[in-house]
Amino acid sequence: MKDNFSTQSDKYAKYRPTYPSDLFEFLNSNIQDKRNAWDCGTGNGQVAYELAKTFDNVFATDISQSQIDNALQADNISYSVQPAEKTGFDNRLFDLIVVAQAIHWFDFDKFYTEVKRTAKDNALLCVVGYGKLEISEQIDNVIADFYNSIIGKYWDKERKYIDESYKTIPFPFDEIQTPNFVNTQRWTLEHLIGYLNTWSAVKHFIKQNSYSPIDKLQKDIELLWGNEQTKQIHFPLLLRIGRITK
């Protein structure tokens, strides 16, 4: 698994979008025993924090100590630095396993072997993420041009799974039909720019070129932003949920 997110972990925690509450309600309604949950690739801990409201114990893992140092805390969350594909967890421990905006970095076969080992019979695996944001036609076009033309070649090859809405990842589980959840935020321009700065391709660009491509993008967006303090930001939710049967 690649680690593109140890740098600027505080910004990752501050600027990345959260997930809608009705997603967690849907998960809870499909899980009877809420003893142990695993948030794999926890990043800033936002999913672990939500799971901790309904599960007795949440185990949250990431390969980045820096991410975990900046993660949200709760008494029943246990954070640890472990790769997704090989953990120290007991067999048949988890009622729910969640991977948020991370599975595209994993070795699928090895991770799924670990999922089957650590999950209880009939547990759920939830793979969730978000696609390219939508604000307005004009701003979306500017960001799309930036995404494809300016930083396009700096994306890791795994990014294609996000662009393909997670529909092309292998998923060898009994899949559950899910509602179409809407992930909507209200952000300031400053928050939007902070989020764009967390993109891994932006970091790769800066490393190779020694300047930030965001500076020009920010000026272009400012011209289109208008007088509103905040704008609605829509993220298409990418979601696959499967039942793990032994």
Helix content: 25-40%
Query: What's the CATH class label?
Result: Alpha Beta
Question: How many strand elements?
Answer: 8
What gap, in angstroms, lies between the N and C termini? Answer: 26 Å
H and E order: HHEHEHEEHEHHEEHHHE
Secondary-structure arrangement, i.e. CATH architecture: 3-Layer(aba) Sandwich
By CATH, the superfamily comes out as Vaccinia Virus protein VP39
Q: Describe the biggest sheet?
A: 8 strands, mixed
Estimate the global geometry from the Cα principal axes. Answer: globular
Strand content: 15-25%
Radius of gyration (CA) equals: 18 Å
State the CATH topology.
Answer: Rossmann fold
Could you say which structural class the secondary elements and strand pairing correspond to?
A: alpha/beta
* Tally of helical segments: 10
The low-confidence runs, each spanning 5 or more residues with pLDDT under 50, are: 2-7
Report on the structure:
It is a single chain. With 246 residues, the protein is of the alpha/beta class. It has one domain: Rossmann fold, CATH 3.40.50. Helices cover 35% and strands 24% of the residues. It has helices spanning 9-15, 21-29, 46-51, 65-69, 108-118, 137-150, 160-163, 189-196, 200-209, 214-225; strands at residues 36-40, 57-62, 77-81, 94-100, 119-130, 174-175, 182-188, 230-244. Strands 1, 2, 3, 4, 5, 6, 7 and 8 form an eight-stranded mixed sheet that branches. Strand 1, helix 3 and strand 2 form a beta-alpha-beta unit. The protein is globular and about 55 Å long.
